[in-house]
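Re: that backbone. Tokens:
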């Protein structure tokens, strides 16, 4: 019954309400971030907008991209083979790519966390239990700038790659600077530090090279001002929040 209800709700017009209610009842941050991300997409996407889902996994947020922008040409990236196959079948109108997005194109080790595949990535998370089963495989990686045609007017990007977000930004500087999309991205302990990346590096790359400002999701939705560099670092250091919005 629980699996059936999940299939009925995920990607539907009711999911945001359900996620918000779950957060209010339990305090679960993931439910809050899902609700807020859906609300960001609702405000940003137009019927013919282009959106990109990096780390599409099971396609939960991709469904909303299609729902809000049914006439848009969307791109999705998912390196786990079984999830890629399912996405390609489920979303025939979406251009789904079977590789990871990184700072450069090549082939790299990928660590699949067997019990918790959502935690898989190009680095093994440092907060994983030492006895957690992990499968290592070699997968292709591509820089976003090498995949997205220069003329593509991207309006929204979601990035959830378990700490590899900085590499995604590095490999997509030209694309992101040119289109200036609204970006929802993850940045927290166990992720970024698994890649040896600091919040200051992420802030400087987004603000100086890409020209974005960084907000908490709630701040952006309330049309309040962006985070300063010190405030963003504090959010990370104190684990206050780990999902953010970057945009013009």
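Recovered sequence:
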């Amino acid at each position: 019954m629980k699996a059936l209800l999940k299939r009925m709700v995920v990607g539907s017009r009711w999911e945001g309400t359900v996620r918000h209610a779950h957060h209010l009842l339990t305090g679960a941050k993931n439910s809050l971030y899902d609700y807020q991300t859906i609300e960001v997409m609702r405000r940003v996407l137009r019927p013919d907008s282009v959106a990109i889902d990096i780390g599409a996994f099971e396609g939960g947020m991709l469904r909303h991209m299609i729902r809000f922008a049914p006439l848009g040409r969307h791109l999705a990236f998912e390196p786990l083979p079984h999830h890629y196959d399912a996405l390609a079948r489920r979303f025939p109108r979406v251009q789904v790519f079977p590789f990871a997005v990184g700072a450069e194109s090549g082939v790299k080790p990928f660590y699949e966390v067997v019990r918790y595949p959502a935690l898989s990535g190009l680095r093994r998370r440092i907060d994983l239990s030492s006895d957690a089963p992990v499968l290592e495989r070699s997968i292709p990686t591509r820089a976003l700038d090498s995949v997205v045609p220069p003329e593509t007017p991207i309006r929204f990007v979601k990035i959830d790659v378990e700490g590899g977000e900085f590499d995604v930004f590095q490999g997509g500087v030209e694309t992101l600077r040119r289109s200036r999309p609204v970006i929802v991205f993850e940045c927290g302990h166990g992720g970024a530090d698994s890649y040896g990346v600091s919040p200051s590096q992420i802030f400087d790359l987004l603000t100086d090279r890409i020209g974005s400002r960084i907000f908490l999701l709630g701040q952006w939705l309330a049309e309040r001002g962006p985070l300063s560099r010190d405030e963003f670092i504090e959010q990370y250091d104190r684990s206050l929040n780990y999902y953010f919005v970057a945009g013009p």
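The beta strands are 50-54, 75-77, 95-97, 100-102, 106-113, 134-143, 154-159, 182-186, 213-216, 243-247. The longest strand covers residues 134-143.
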